[in-house]
Amino acid sequence: MANRIERKPIEGLFRLLRPANCLMGAAGTLLASIICVGPEEFLDYGSEVLFSLLVVIFFTGAGNSLNDYFDREIDKTAHPERPIPRGLVSPRSALILSVVSFSIAIILSSFINLWSLGIVLTSILFMISYEVSLKREGLAGNLAISWLTGALFLFGGAAVDRMEVAWILGALAFLATLGREIVKDIQDVQGDRGIRLTLPMRIGARNAGFVASLSFIGAVLLSPVPYMQELLSIYYVPIVLVSDAIFIYCETIHFADPKRGQKVAKLAMLVALIAFLFGGII
Fold first, then answer.
1. Count of CB atoms within 10 A of residue 220's CB?
2. CA distance linking residue 279 with residue 282, whole number of Å
3. Which of 47, 107, 135, 275 has its CA 20 to 30 A from that of 264?
4. 3-state DSSP of 28-93
5. Side-chain half-sphere exposure of 135, counting CA atoms within 13 A
C-alpha cells in the first residue's frame, strides 16, 4: 500500500508532461535540423542538436503542465482522466513542475547559441500569455499557437546555425497553422460561445474564412522561395507543388465544410514537411 501511495504523485507528474507530445516535438526539431543543415554536416552539430532535443522535451512538458494547471476546473468535466482532476497531483505541484521545466529549458538553450536562447524565451512568453489570457481572445490565441508551431522549426535551424532555411520553414508553418486554427474556430463557433471570443464571432464566419484563406495563400506564395534561393534541391519542387495544390483545394472547401477543411490543411502541412525533408537531404 505504501508503495502505491508513493507511486501516485510520480505517475501524476509523468502524465502531466505528456511524454508522447514531448517526443513528437523533439522529432519535429530533429527533422528541422536535418532539413536545414543537410545529412552531410548534421553530425558536426551533434551536441547542439542533443541539447535542442532536450530543450524541446522540457519546454513541451512545461507547457503541458501549465495547461493542466490553468484548465483544472474545465478538466473536471472535459478531461476527468487527467492527473489533476483524478487527484494524482495537486495544482501547486503542476505549477512547480512547469516552472522547473521551463527553467531547465532556458538553461540548456543557453549552451547552444543566442538564437536558441532567444527563441526559447520568446516562446515561453507566448506560452504563458496564451494560458493566462490569449486562449480566450480568439485571433490573438491563434497567433500565439502559430508562433509556437513555427518556433519549433526555427529552433531546429538555430541549433545547426542555419537560420536562412529555418526562417522560411518557420514562416510556412506559422501561416499554415494560422489558417488551420481559424478554420477550426469556424467549426467550433457554437461550442465556443460564452467561453472564447474567436475571430468568427467578431467578424463573422465568412470573413474569418477569408482571413484563413489569405494565410493559406501566403504559405503557397512563400513555398517557391527555398528553391529559388538555392536553399533546397530540385526534389523539393514536385512535392511542394502537391502541398500547394492541397492548400488551394482547402480554400475551396473550408467555407462549406470547416471540419473537412482543417483536416485537409493538416494534410497539406504534412506534405509540405515531406517536401522540405526531400529537398534538404537529397
1. 23
2. 6
3. 135
4. HHHHHHHHHHCHHHHHHHHHHHHHHHHHHHHHHHHHHHHHHHHCCCCHHHHCCCCHHHHCCCCHHH
5. 12
- Three cell numbers written together for 235: 526534389
- Residue 193, classified by CB atoms within 10 Å of its CB into exposed (0-12), middle (13-18) or buried (19+), is exposed
- String of DSSP letters for 86-120: HTSS-HHHHHHHHHHHHHHHHHHHTTT-HHHHHHH
| Residue ranges of domains in the chain, CATH in brackets | 1-161 (1.10.357.140), 163-282 (1.20.120)
Which three three-digit cell numbers place residue 140? 490573438
Q: Evaluate whether 137 touches 197 at the Cβ level (below 8 Å).
A: yes
HEC profile of 134-196: HHHCCHHHHHHHHHHHHHHHHHHHHHCCCHHHHHHHHHHHHHHHHHHHHHHHHHCHHHHCCCC
CA gap 275, 270 in Å, rounded: 9
Other Cβ atoms within 10 Å of 44 Cβ, number: 12
pLDDT digits (tens, 9 = 90+) for 195-244: 788 899 999 999 999 999 999 999 999 999 999 988 889 999 999 999 99
C-alpha cell at 26: 523533439
The amino acid present at 49, given as its one-letter code, is: V
